[in-house]
Amino acid sequence: MLWALLGIISGIIAGVYWLILDFIIHQVSVFDNWTVIPLMSFAGLMAGLIIHFIGDPGEIHLIVNNIRFNKGKLDPKQNPSMILSSLFCVAAGGSLGPEAPLVQVTGSTGSWLGKKFNLSGEKLRSMTIAGMASGFTALFGAPLGGSLFALEILHHRHAVEYYRAIIPALVSSSFSFIIFALIIHLGLGATWIIETYEYSGVSDFANVVLYALIATIFGWIFIHTINLFKKLFQKISVPIYIKTTIGGISLGIIGFYFPLTRYFGHYEINTLLGTDFTLWWLIALLIFKILAIAITVTSGWRGGFIIPLFFCGATLGLILNSIFPQINLSLAIVSCMAAINACVTRTPMSTTILLATLTGFSYFIPILFASLTGYFLAPRMPFIGSQLKRTED
Q1: Last residue of some domain: 184, 213, 242?
Q2: Alpha carbons 130 and 60: distance in angstroms, whole number
Q3: 103 — phi, psi (to 5°)?
Q4: pLDDT band at 67; cut points 50, 70, 90
Q5: pLDDT category, 386, cuts 50, 70, 90?
Q6: How far is C-alpha 321 from the chain's CA centre?
Q7: 359 lies in a domain?
Q8: Residues 291, 253: contact at Cβ < 8 Å?
Q9: Residue-wise over 101-129: b if at least 16 C-beta within 10 A, else e?
Q10: What is the pTM of this model?
């Protein structure tokens, strides 16, 4: 009953957050063409001022670190800064999604609820993880995938290190999904529409691995690009609100020339898949989307990078299809989406389930092959540094 109660509360939180976010996005949608530059500059300034005066809410690295090394506790005091700053960042068109803010808020709600019922040790940690899973589920619309993602992202080697949290996460996620669906009128079915895949023989598996290899290379490029921009912004010794403003100006310029780089990709992926772009435009879009994500992450903007990674994978799949028209488009897209996300986040199991749910791709095995390829060929040092053990740090 406690896990169910957490799911209900998390579903309400996620639903209200999504409605507010969607309302703000519609209000600022009037800003078009060159006006996106002052809009995103202002959003960066406001987000930076919130972080400067209210406090730094941290990022996914801090969430993972607290789950693993702080007895599974997430501090609810960080929520006001995270909610307010992320609303400015995501609604203005930053290339990060609401998954990190939702996970921080719902995970800390699990910690708070566990303390209220005098839970400790693994029971308290399980409540926090269940809250995180509820946040992931609300965004992805996949209770099983969201639950596994909350477990996998905590460690880069052992996906179910905190195996006691599996059932709490599943129960909480299921209730969160129901409440969230009621609030925003979410139905069942695929979020992103791709062509129906038809199996053409065992050679499809060789093709999947090939596509995944190419996507994994871009996963490495993604990680190194973010590390490069992180070093650049660390050299700028100015207050956080100056960095976020610089980031906003840069993102506004990129968004002016490449509008599809704005936002985190929830709606933009369908636009991408339903529009006939030229090869060179797709290549430029992929390059500048990676740059936009890197600037968003490293300049202090708040949000998550999971759906933006799926956007990059979908773009790469379209590029491969433009170069080699004879290949199966659906297989190329879903393979690239799976491999690049598994390479960066180290989450092959949940990536497989999430993509099957989000795309309606009914064959798990090809997605699993692509996810495992990205996972095993990922850099030795994980992108989320707190996934490492203490001794490895």
Answers
A1: 184
A2: 16
A3: -65, -40
A4: low
A5: very low
A6: 25
A7: yes
A8: no
A9: bbbbbbbbbbbbbbeeeebeeebbbbbbb
A10: 0.90
